[in-house]
Design brief:
Length: 725
């Protein structure tokens, strides 16, 4: 009942919103008519004073009258809409009162849950008038439930529903056909899962998927429709779920299906007075028998290595047996509210667990199929990202499964609305901190908006840099600058929206900006310096991602340019975090800014007596024959100097930067080999020591001369150099 009246209120609110928009639109026309009437009245006054022909004045008068008539029509139509709005407002008030009464009645039932509202079963007097005649009671039950279904069907837009249904079916079979064309075998676990769901049971899984989407989209669906569709869902899961979980799942689904159908027929028996109590007792008895016979006792015969879903039901069966026992005893001793509630919780719990797990299996299978199809198509954008996408998608799917499980369980226990009302009041409660008013809901909204903002920013980075701008002929670094600009804009917009959602007055940020300026001047200047330097790096582009740079005895490849710092990976494999300020303020060598070429110099010496012209030709020949050496500019061999022990030469050649070390090693070996072939010697430094023998008199004379100390500069000069001859 509450669900139906809530649906009526939603429709009335939509109509009221539509009428308000129409009233505002008509008011704009009335204002426009009033403005035009005033203009033509002024025109008429000028025409009368300027002796304008009478025919023209009459035409203006007719035009003014027509404007007045149109304005009156608009006023009349607006008045009708206002009356309609008042009627709708009154109807909304009535629906609110009805919903309030229903809520109070449900609260009364919850308050009296543990009070016996009926006598014990063996003291109940059963009258034949409560069951006979049968046909009018069945007709009444059919009429009341059909009426709710008819009212609901009037709200459905069948054109959009049919269009969505066609799109889902086409997409479903498109995925199946694309996956069928993949070169996969039974050794692939993904292929096995998809085959069991899509290939073996395509129609039951598709029907299940469509009904689940229908239930999620139409939340105000009548209970009788939910019961019928739930039965169809359990029946569909009976075909595909046992092939994934195991044959034990068939027994679980059969139990859920029998209990769900019995609980569905309970709606009919409430039209037969006290006989409904017999039905509730019989229903709880059947439930106890099924859970014990095929659940608790049946589990003992099953192997231990079963699917986690079966293990879950093994634990759940004990709880279900307890609930159905409470329902049976409550029905016997007159606690009918408790009996009906516990019976419904037990039955719906089994059905909800089976349906949500089946929906999880189908959606997980769709994710696995899409990922495999994507891998086979080799999308450049998603290269090396499919595994991460699969993992995150399944994690999100598990979160949604838990969310819907909790939601449906709360609705089954009839505490969903009280919990939501309490949660809403808790989130909307505001705390005052000085002049600032914040709430838990505002803080959560801030966190959620920021998370979505940074998620969108990361996604935009992937799309723009890796897919869109990579195909354009923009200068190096410009795509990164465009990407950073868009991302900063999105982040700024997201931060402002998050602050607004948190209830923070953006007009108070003037004081914050002043305090921030003081903080920057005192202790945050390095951070701000690095931030501004990061912007300079992005827009001036002295360094781009992928460049090889050298700064402060550090050489490596730039992996990332961030807001505060950049990551440089050295050739030793180390990840070095370099503040952006260092890249701007210090001397920076960018080896690959304009191109990826590097000049390599190789020095070599040959023995004296070697023909330099031959050496130059051989050196150039070795460089020209190497595959990594660039032909433009071409290699150059130069004669450098006459060394102490060799004739020294230089070989200069250009290679791609990443090939520099390997190419230099290869060419050095090539030079050695070609010198060996042409009998050219590579000398090493030599020193010749000549020993001269002298007689003893000369040695003594030299010793005596060395012991003599000169007395003046002239004498010292003569003693060192000897007399002139």
């Amino acid at each position: 009942t509450y669900r139906a009246w809530n649906g009526y209120e939603s429709d009335l609110v939509k109509w009221k919103t539509f009428i308000n928009n129409r009233i505002a639109h008509i008011q704009n026309h009335i204002n426009e008519m009033e403005f035009n009437k005033r203009v033509w009245e002024l025109t008429m006054e000028e025409a009368a004073s300027a002796d304008t022909p009478a025919e023209l004045q009459a035409h203006i008068t007719e035009l003014i009258q027509e404007i007045k008539d149109v304005k009156m029509n608009f006023l009349s139509f607006r008045q009708k809409l206002i009356l309609m709005e008042d009627d709708i407002t009154e109807l909304i008030s009535i629906t609110d009162d009805v919903q309030e009464e229903v809520s109070q009645l449900q609260q009364h039932l919850r308050d009296n849950l543990f009070k016996a509202d009926k006598p014990v079963l063996w003291k109940v007097k059963f009258n034949s008038s409560e069951i006979i005649p049968v046909t009018p009671r069945i007709r009444k039950a059919w009429h009341e439930n059909a009426k709710t279904v008819t009212n609901f069907s009037k709200e459905v837009r069948y054109y959009y529903l049919l269009l969505a249904l066609v799109l889902v079916i086409l997409l479903y079979f498109f995925i199946i056909n694309r996956f069928r064309k993949l070169d996969l075998t039974d050794s692939d676990p993904h292929f096995v899962v998809v085959k069991r769901i899509f290939f073996d049971h395509p129609y039951s899984s598709l029907t299940f998927f469509i009904i689940v989407l229908f239930i999620i989209l139409f939340v105000n669906m009548p209970l009788i429709m939910i019961g019928i569709l739930g039965t169809v869902l359990l029946f569909c899961s009976l075909f595909f779920l046992p092939h994934v979980v195991g044959l034990q799942a068939k027994r679980i689904i059969n139990i859920a299906l029998v209990l769900y159908i019995l609980n569905l027929f309970e709606i009919l028996f409430w039209y037969f007075g006290n006989y409904a109590r017999i039905y509730v007792t019989a229903e709880s008895t059947v439930a106890l028998f099924l859970i014990y016979k095929y659940g608790i006792a049946g589990f003992k015969k099953w192997k231990k290595d079963v699917h986690s879903f079966v293990k879950l039901f093994r634990v759940l069966s004990t709880v279900l047996f307890l609930l159905f026992s409470i329902a049976f005893l409550s029905s016997l001793f007159g606690f009918m509210n408790l009996a009906v509630l516990t019976l419904k919780i037990g039955v719906k719990t089994v059905a909800i667990v089976v349906i949500i797990f089946s929906a999880y299996i189908i959606l997980r299978t769709i994710i696995l199929a899409v990922v495999e199809i994507g891998r086979s198509n080799d999308y450049r954008l998603m290269t090396n990202r499919w595994d991460k996408l699969e993992k995150r998608s399944i994690q999100l799917l598990k979160i949604l499964a838990v969310f819907f499980l909790i939601k449906f369980m709360f609705q089954t226990m009839e505490i969903y609305r009280p919990v939501m009302n309490w949660l809403r009041s808790f989130l909307e409660h505001e705390w005052e901190i000085g002049t600032l008013q914040i709430s838990i809901g505002g803080v959560l909204s801030l966190i959620l908006i920021l998370a979505i903002t940074f998620g969108i920013s990361s996604f935009i980075k992937i799309i723009i840099e890796d897919e869109i701008l990579v195909h354009t002929k923009l200068p190096k670094g410009v795509p990164a600058a465009i990407s950073v600009t868009i991302r900063y804009f999105i982040i700024t917009l997201g931060v402002l929206m998050a602050l607004g959602a948190a209830g923070i007055d953006l007009g108070k940020f003037g004081l914050l900006a002043g305090a921030l300026g003081v903080g920057i001047g005192i202790g945050l200047q390095n951070i701000v310096n690095n931030f501004i330097s990061g912007l300079i790096l992005v827009y001036e582009r002295p360094v781009n991602v992928g460049d090889t740079i050298e700064v402060e005895n550090l050489m490596g490849t730039v992996n990332r340019i961030g807001i505060r710092s950049s990551n440089v990976r050295t050739y030793d494999g180390a990840e070095v975090v370099v503040p952006n300020g260092n890249l701007i303020s210090n001397q920076l060598i960018n080896w690959t800014l304009s191109d990826n070429k590097r000049r390599v110099e190789l020095k070599v010496g040959t023995a004296y007596g070697t023909d330099p012209n031959v050496v130059l030709e051989l050196l150039k020949k070795v460089a020209m024959n190497h595959e990594d050496v660039l032909k433009t500019p071409e290699p150059r061999a130069l004669f450098e100097e006459f060394g102490d022990s060799s004739l020294n030469f230089r070989l200069l050649f250009w290679v791609p930067f990443e090939m520099g070390i390997g190419a230099k090693s290869d060419i050095a070996i090539g030079v050695y080999n070609i010198f060996e072939e042409n009998n050219i010697e590579i000398p090493f430094p030599q020193v010749d020591l000549h020993v001269k023998k002298e007689d003893e008199n000369q040695v003594k004379g030299s010793d005596a001369t060395s012991d003599k100390t000169p007395s003046d500069p002239i004498e010292a000069s003569e003693s060192e150099t000897g007399p002139d001859k």
